[in-house]
Specification:
- The protein contains 15 helices and 14 strands.
- The strands form two sheets. The chain has an eight-stranded mixed sheet, with helices on both faces. Strands 11-10-9-12-13-14 form a six-stranded parallel sheet, with helices on both faces.
- α1 (22-36) packs across α15 (379-398), α6 packs across α10 (283-291) and α11 (307-314) packs across α14.
- 43% of the residues lie in helices and 16% in strands.
- The protein starts with 6 loop residues before the first strand and ends with a helix.
- β7 (164-167), α5 (170-180) and β8 form a beta-alpha-beta unit.
Length: 399
């Protein structure tokens, strides 16, 4: 660590563990590591009450938590405006640097203005940049067909705010760099590598051979995974594994698509081969459950980073993921090394899973590569990069 300890403020609408999405989980774990290194961290956003989850880390609410997502797990424009209206309440006294996520955009100009007046550098971390993907992700309603352009324009306009921008993947960094007209560094998300490795040692060897963990929203394409699992069950490999382990797939997580997925399982009579675990109480429970699988499967159409694949790699579980121009998983999981990429078709996915599950030697080699690669994303290494970026910004502001 270089320079004196800094006082950081992380501003985001959701705060873990009241909400369990990727950004709030990242903020929570990064704050833990910064606090361990002697920095002071304020997590500011929507929360029920103040808290001190770790040494040198405090939660300072700007408003009480509210319903944060509308249909299909999306924030609404009203909620984005509500968050922006709370920027004035952020406690900036004594803060050296502010970090915020790009999502949900509307808070950025107001936050940039407050930071500029206080001469506090603002680091904006971009977790995704959608561009024309907004056409597919447009909000529901009668004005939906044309609204995607407004959302894309808002995203484009927001990219110019902040003293500096960073991104969690090269995919997003390149997109934001094009808009800002300057280089955008990649500072990835991280994992508590040693904690996951310890828990992996206690994994259940009789767990289902396939696992998915994450938020249950349509973009994750869990229905595709269910279809592939049903096809796998009809193969000799699938029948053998189902006899040995009772189920072929474990689904971990919750979200707006949960009821539809459970209905899909009932409708297609998949209860015998799909273990729908739902949301588990603690991260440690998730890591232990993931570690029992032979393959982690991420069929998602959109991933700004790929936390679940990275956690699976740390647990020694190779990853199968579906190709997509809006997914950064391929930056973590190199095809044929830590895992495999496949086109998003049930038949192709089934064929790959069937082949891999019948090849323990290939899985073992990929498992070793996965652990080795995941070690480079430990929070200690990621925090060092965040601290370096923060020190540069603070020195620049004070010079």
């Amino acid at each position: 660590m270089t320079g004196r300890p800094l006082r950081w403020l992380f501003f985001y609408d959701c705060i873990y563990p009241e909400s369990v999405g990727g950004v709030e989980h990242r903020n929570y774990e990064l704050a833990r590591e910064l606090g361990r290194l002697g920095h002071e961290v304020l997590l500011s956003g929507w929360a029920e009450s103040p808290a001190e989850p770790h040494p040198n880390v405090r939660v300072q609410p700007v408003a009480r938590a509210s319903r944060r997502y509308v249909a299909r797990g999306r924030r609404s424009g009203i909620e984005a405006l509500t968050l922006a209206s709370q920027v004035r309440r952020i406690p900036l006294d004594g803060v050296d640097i502010v970090e915020t996520a790009n999502i949900p955009y509307l808070h950025l100009p107001l936050l940039a203005r407050r930071c500029r007046r206080r001469r506090i550098p603002l680091l904006v971390t971009w977790h995704e940049h959608w561009g024309r993907y907004w056409r597919e992700h447009r909000p529901p309603g009668p004005f939906s067909p044309g609204m995607w352009r407004l959302y894309a324009l808002c995203e484009h306009w927001s990219a110019r705010f902040g003293t500096q921008a960073a991104a969690v993947s090269r995919l997003t960094a390149d997109r934001v760099s094009t808009v800002r007209g300057e280089t955008v560094d990649v500072i990835p998300n991280g994992i508590p590598f040693e904690r996951i490795r310890t828990l992996a040692a206690d994994a259940d060897a009789t767990a289902p051979p396939l696992v998915y963990a994450g938020r249950l929203i349509p973009e994750k394409r869990i229905d595709l995974l269910l279809d592939a699992t049903a096809r796998l069950a009809a193969t000799e490999t699938g029948r053998k594994l189902a006899t040995e382990r009772g189920a072929l797939l474990r689904i971990i997580g919750g979200g707006p698509a949960e009821d539809d997925l459970r209905a899909h399982i009932e409708r297609e009579n998949l209860n015998a081969i799909v273990d729908f675990a739902g949301r588990l109480p603690e991260n440690e429970d998730v890591w232990r459950a993931v570690a029992g699988a032979r393959l982690a499967v991420q069929p998602s159409a959109r991933e700004g980073f790929g936390l679940f694949p990275l956690e699976a790699m740390a647990a020694g579980v190779p990853v199968v993921h579906c190709r997509s121009p809006n997914s950064a998983v391929s930056e973590l999981v190199r095809d044929g090394r830590e895992g495999w990429a496949v086109d998003p078709h049930a038949g192709d996915l089934t064929g790959l899973l069937e082949r891999l599950l019948a090849e323990p030697g290939e899985l073992a080699a990929a498992s070793s590569s996965a652990v080795e690669r995941a070690a480079g994303y430990d929070w200690r290494q990621v925090a060092a990069r965040v601290i370096e970026a923060g020190n540069v910004l603070v020195r620049r502001e004070r010079s």
